[in-house]
From TrEMBL, chain B:
<dbReference type="GO" id="GO:0006935">
    <property type="term" value="P:chemotaxis"/>
</dbReference>
<dbReference type="InterPro" id="IPR050992">
    <property type="entry name" value="CheZ_family_phosphatases"/>
</dbReference>
<dbReference type="Pfam" id="PF04509">
    <property type="entry name" value="CheC"/>
</dbReference>
<keyword id="KW-0378">Hydrolase</keyword>
<protein>
    <submittedName>
        <fullName>Chemotaxis protein CheC</fullName>
    </submittedName>
</protein>
<dbReference type="GO" id="GO:0016787">
    <property type="term" value="F:hydrolase activity"/>
</dbReference>
<feature type="domain" description="CheC-like protein">
    <location>
        <begin position="15"/>
        <end position="48"/>
    </location>
</feature>
<dbReference type="InterPro" id="IPR007597">
    <property type="entry name" value="CheC"/>
</dbReference>
<dbReference type="InterPro" id="IPR028976">
    <property type="entry name" value="CheC-like_sf"/>
</dbReference>
<feature type="domain" description="CheC-like protein">
    <location>
        <begin position="111"/>
        <end position="146"/>
    </location>
</feature>
<keyword id="KW-0145">Chemotaxis</keyword>
Length: 151, 206
């Protein structure tokens, strides 16, 4: 949670238990530089205490991209996939819709950075674990009681 | 006096929270023991303050499936609260309530889910009456909402709530034993200045 990592083939990345958080996967198919971020909140500027960059969609995605470029990825080749942002409890309060807000903020930041979002699996009401494979950029989603699926 | 952050309050008043946790857990244990006609004793609740990023692993592996019961609170304070138990604890309680074989652990059916919600109501009521009793405030809970999913996913909810206002999260761990083994975790997520209201009601400077 509130973390991000980059790696190269043959290493893979995973993040477990995405509830209302969003997992953002970035992949460069030529250099096979792979990045995954697990963000919790949409916007670092709206909160007083924003020490952890990886906590927020805006700062986290930007840092993830920077780290991938440092590892030799090319911005024009990077593609994104996102998952998560579930509403874990059916409780009807606006602060509980942070999952949707996280997804929206992630899409907006990717658009701002010019990174195409080629797949997403967001919303609904279940937790997700994601695995990102550097060999081919496959993004596998696992959930309790469901067969794993790729997007 | 300047406005204190939740982080500062949590650091300054762990005793207060331990006290609330103590009384709340005590009430909950008694209520459940009465409801199920059991003898249950309780270990001293353990209040833990941790960085929000760590809360997802605080009750075990992030992909461990747990039962989370969440309720909103309103009136003199606003916010929400959550109670979590691991699956064995939940099965124990439900089996006992349903008069079933203690080792039965098939998936919960609709009636079981109602039982879990009822247990949630009782536990929430116990903690809230502890809080009300100490502060003389009126605090009313919403109906309970249940999620059975990975611990990390369920705990993302309080992590985000605490993350919106600071870097730390607070959780109270309770263990109940004897006739039944239950490990439970209790998290109170006050909104706005509710926390300050609680402390002021307890006569503490904020």
């Amino acid at each position: 949670m509130a973390d991000l990592k980059v790696c190269k083939a043959p290493d893979n990345l995973t993040t477990i238990g995405l509830g209302s958080c969003i997992g953002i996967a970035l992949y460069d198919p030529v250099t096979k530089v792979t990045g995954l971020a697990h963000i919790m909140l949409p916007d670092s500027t709206s909160i007083r205490n924003n020490s952890n960059i990886a906590k927020f969609a805006d700062t986290g995605i930007k840092k993830l991209l920077d780290d991938m470029l440092k590892m030799g990825a090319s911005k024009s080749r990077i593609r994104a996939k996102i998952a998560g942002g579930a509403k874990m409890f059916d409780i009807g309060s606006s602060t509980m819709n942070v999952g949707d807000r996280n997804a929206a903020a992630s899409r907006a930041m990717l658009k701002q950075l010019g990174i195409p979002l080629i797949a997403e699996d967001c919303g609904k009401n279940f937790g997700r674990t994601v695995e990102l494979y550097s060999a081919n950029g496959d993004f596998l989603i696992k959930a309790v009681g469901k067969t794993p699926y790729k997007i | 006096m300047g406005k204190m952050t939740l982080d500062q309050i949590n650091k300054m008043y762990p005793d207060v929270l331990t006290e609330i946790g103590n009384i709340g857990a005590g009430n909950a244990t008694t209520a459940i023991a009465n409801m199920l006609n059991l003898r249950i004793s309780m270990s001293v609740p353990h209040v833990e303050l941790m960085p929000v990023e760590q809360i997802c692993c605080a009750i075990g592996a992030e992909d461990k499936v747990v039962v989370g019961i969440m309720l909103g609170v309103q009136h003199d304070i606003t916010g929400s609260m959550m109670f979590l138990m691991d699956l064995p604890s939940a099965h124990h309680l439900v089996n006992r309530l349903m008069g079933r074989d203690p080792d039965y652990n098939e998936d919960f059916d609709e009636m079981d889910m109602s039982a879990i919600k009822e247990i949630g109501n009782i536990i929430a009521g116990s903690y809230l009456s502890a809080l009300s009793g100490l502060t003389n405030m009126t605090i009313t809970p919403s109906v309970p909402y249940v999620a059975i999913d990975m611990a990390g996913a369920i705990l993302s909810v309080p992590a985000i709530q605490f993350g919106m206002v600071g870097d730390n999260a607070l959780m109270i761990k309770t263990e109940m034993g004897d006739d039944l083994d239950i490990s439970g975790y209790y998290i109170l997520m006050p909104e706005g200045d509710s926390y300050q209201k609680i402390l002021r009601a307890l006569g503490l400077p904020v």
